[in-house]
Amino acid sequence: MKNRIYKISRWIHKYFGLFFLLFMGWMSLSGVILNHPDLIQNISVHRFLVPKQYQPENWNRSSLKGIEYMGDSLLIYGRQGVFLSHDKGKTCTPFMKGEFPTSALGKRTNHLFFSNKEQLLLSATNQGCFQFNFNQGIWHKLPLPEGDHSILKILDTDDHYLLVSKSDVYQTSGNKSKLTFEKLSLKKKIYSSNISLIQVFFQLHDGSIWGLPGRLVWDLAGLVLFFLCISAFYIWYYPKKWKRRYKKKGKRASHSEKSARNFFFKYHKKLGWYFAILLIIITFTGMFLTPVFMMTLVNGSISSKYYPAIQDKNPWNHKIRNALYDSQKNQLVLDCSDGVWAGSCSSEEEFQKISLPVRIFGMGTTVFREEKPGSWLVGSFGGLHRVDKEADQSEKILQTKKDNNSGRPASTFVTGYQKLPDGKQYILGHYKGICNDKGEKLNDVLPMPKHIIKKSKLPLWNYMFELHNARIFRGGIGAFYMLIIPLGGLLCLLMLMAGVLDYWLTKPKARNRN
User: What is the Cα–Cα distance from 208 to 131, expressed in whole angstroms?
Assistant: First the structure.
């Protein structure tokens, strides 16, 4: 019985492993790279290597996030940077001279703020906040208390300017004429000690459960997996090559070739055994961080007392996704991964969680701003709504699916909203670009210059992320790409467990021989 089990597990480990060598190789290397975005933030992938579906067209894929009016000129901003137009958008030129970032990731502009009264122009990018010097015609970087951060939003509270990042909020110190910023210590009311299963699986998958030490251990596991892929191929391929060479020329494998195979065979078994549990955890959690299985985690949570993660002192750490300033109540409102929070920046009171009469898609709000006192625009991949906060009611601006409470996105993935001076309103879609309020694509509203398309690049981090979640294959196989990670992960999980069983069954024999 034991021999039969061993033969089956050995077959599964060998042939499943060989079949998925390339899959495991790209997952291991891309995972290690994704764990350290700061190290690759200035590296971009040339357009030649980027699949067609990732190249901008009609200002899609957040190439256009908004428009600021500066007199008779338009400032167009988004993932491609900032552009200036003097003819109402018919033509535009790059507006990024000076210290403005040049990498594909760094120049991504999340928000642009212009004050005609103060003659102030600020840009919130992935590499900090920049101020435009009108006399010199160039951008200058504004120093922040803790170095460069990805700034998501610039808000005006009448008394101060606020810079909102993924983890912190910075406020101008003193008057608004001299822009120096200080970090605010915003308190947060604790409603529950439970942690969502999605967060648990994310932190278990990338090692952040134990901070930087955890990430480094997970990196080591990723490199071990890559070594296991190389050693598995060497162990399988080269003996076959030696046999063919012996039959044709009568030559046997050299001593160095045999030593190399013995080395790979020995450490393939040892490292595979030592890192088995960790590799199984990484594979299992990765399977559930896909659209196919993630919905099973949405409503799940565990108590924090059973979760051995390092507790960060900052309650907002990597949780802020968007922000607006409520002028009616003089409150800062933060859209976070654990809900929507509101509170005052000028008091010691804790921020309270509030509810909105709209459903925010899991990736957070892409449109989140005050249209007028008491009226907010709230948009996400689930649709676009106008919210009356006092009446706790919402008006649907765009939502092209009738029932959107299932957790699925709307037909138009809303990434922005723009209202022109003539009263016309346009929706910005992730895939479609500029659309009307029915979600229909419009190609003639704001033509996208060819020079922007030709010079577009994809940040290496985003390239690796799309490769890691297999979405990069969508252009070739369509929606079937969503099955690559779940099926590949499941079979790799079987392969890993079969390898553990093989080692366990053969280990007593090795002891007896010794």
Answer: 34
Q: Would the pLDDT of 406 be above 60?
A: no
**pTM of the predicted structure, to 2 decimals:** 0.88
Q: Is 306 exposed, middle or buried (0-12, 13-18, 19+ CB in 10 A)?
A: exposed
Number of Cβ within 10 Å of residue 252's Cβ equals 12
Beta strands in 197-338 (DSSP E): 301-303, 320-326, 331-336
| Bridge partners for 343 per DSSP | 332
Query: What is the DSSP code string of 332-392?
Result: EEEEETTEEEEE-SSSSPPBEEE--SSPPPTT--SEEEEEETTEEEEEETTEEEEEETTTT
| CA 184 to centroid of chain Cα atoms | 26
The three-state secondary structure class of 44 is strand
Q: How far apart are CA 444 and CA 236, in angstroms?
A: 58
| Angle value at C-alpha 240, between 259 and 24, nearest 5 degrees | 80
pLDDT single digits (tens) 477-493 = 988 999 999 999 999 99
Cβ 344 vs Cβ 332: under 8 Å: yes
